[in-house]
């Protein structure tokens, strides 16, 4: 069995890397991918604790996370494409005013 | 333990590749590497159903969607990173990352949680077990995910609805109504 604490620590590191990606990159697509990585890190923590506590509710939570991520990707990519059609630039500062 | 270290290195290479790669399509491929390594972690943590779902949903559906949009939007375009307008944003992001990631990782490794010494229950994490819990006591979550996905699909359709070409109205028409 692989060590639980190290898995949780690895998930924390992946979460931090994803957060930095959201903060540093300016391409909305790459920011979105980094956000996906943060979702994944959270799901990994849920699965690790489900294994540790022998409770499958953690895996149900990870299932919800995967479903939510799928819905979020659909909506988010639709928004990115729609913004791109208006502005013709992939730059997150194009929408910094939050209005058309 | 050696297997864990190799897997951790692979997933971290994927994670750093996502935020370092210059072209978005390379970021997407690194994200696939990260996701697949996490799927192997799920198998090692006896979550076989979730490993399969991870590969099918993430590495399959979501990444195909990403690659599709990346090729649609960035083909032949200038792929340089736009200039940063906020001052010191990158520096403070690095500081935040080291504090948050390092702090959380140290806390997680320093304070081990107690694990249960019993053997695993039957059908733990495989298709039978997940089906029994998702269609049994936790059915409400399954229904919630289904509703959410339906809402997302309808939302995408509404967002990308072709706008009716607005006819240029003559001025006297506006005044009459």
Could you explain how this protein is built, in words?
- The complex is a heterodimer of chains A (100) and B (177).
- Chain A is mainly alpha-helical and 100 residues long.
- Helix content of chain A is 78%, strand content 0%.
- In chain A, helix 1 (4-24) packs antiparallel against helix 2 (28-53) and helix 2 runs antiparallel to helix 3.
- Chain B has 7 helices and no strands.
- Chain B has helices at 2-20, 24-44, 48-74, 89-110, 127-134, 139-159, 171-176.
- In chain B, helix 2 (24-44) packs antiparallel against helix 3 (48-74).
- The radius of gyration of chain B is 24 Å and the shape is extended.
- Chains A and B meet through helix 1, helix 2 and helix 3 of A and helix 1, helix 2, helix 3, helix 4 and helix 5 of B.
List the helices and strands and how they pair.
The complex is a heterodimer of chains A (100) and B (177).
Chain A: H1 4-24, H2 28-53, H3 57-87
Chain B: H1 2-20, H2 24-44, H3 48-74, H4 89-110, H5 127-134, H6 139-159, H7 171-176
Helix pairs in contact in B: 1-2, 2-3
């Amino acid at each position: 069995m692989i060590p639980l604490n190290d898995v949780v620590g690895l998930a924390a590191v992946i979460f931090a890397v994803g957060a930095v990606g959201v903060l540093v990159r300016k391409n909305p697509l790459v920011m979105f991918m980094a956000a996906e990585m943060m979702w994944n890190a959270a799901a990994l923590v849920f699965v690790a604790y489900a294994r540790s506590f022998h409770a499958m509710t953690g895996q149900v939570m990870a299932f919800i996370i995967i479903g939510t991520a799928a819905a979020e990707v659909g909506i988010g990519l639709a928004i990115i494409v729609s913004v791109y059609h208006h502005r013709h630039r992939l730059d997150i500062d194009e929408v910094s005013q939050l209005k058309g | 333990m050696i297997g864990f270290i190799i897997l951790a290195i692979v997933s971290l290479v994927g994670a750093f590749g996502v935020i370092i790669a210059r072209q978005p399509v390379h970021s997407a491929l690194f994200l696939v590497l990260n996701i697949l390594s996490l799927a192997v972690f799920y198998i090692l943590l006896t979550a076989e159903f979730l490993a399969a779902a991870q590969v099918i949903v993430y590495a399959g559906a979501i990444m195909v969607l990403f690659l599709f949009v990346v090729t649609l939007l960035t083909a032949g375009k200038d792929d340089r990173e736009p200039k940063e307008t906020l001052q010191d944003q990158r520096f403070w992001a690095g500081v935040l990352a080291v504090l948050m990631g390092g702090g959380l990782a140290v806390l997680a490794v320093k304070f081990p949680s107690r694990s249960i010494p019993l053997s695993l229950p039957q059908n733990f994490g495989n298709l039978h077990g997940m089906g029994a819990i998702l269609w049994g006591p936790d059915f409400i979550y399954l229904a919630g995910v289904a509703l959410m996905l339906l809402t997302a699909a309808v939302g995408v359709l509404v967002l990308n609805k072709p706008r009716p070409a607005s006819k240029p109205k003559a001025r006297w028409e506006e005044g009459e109504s």
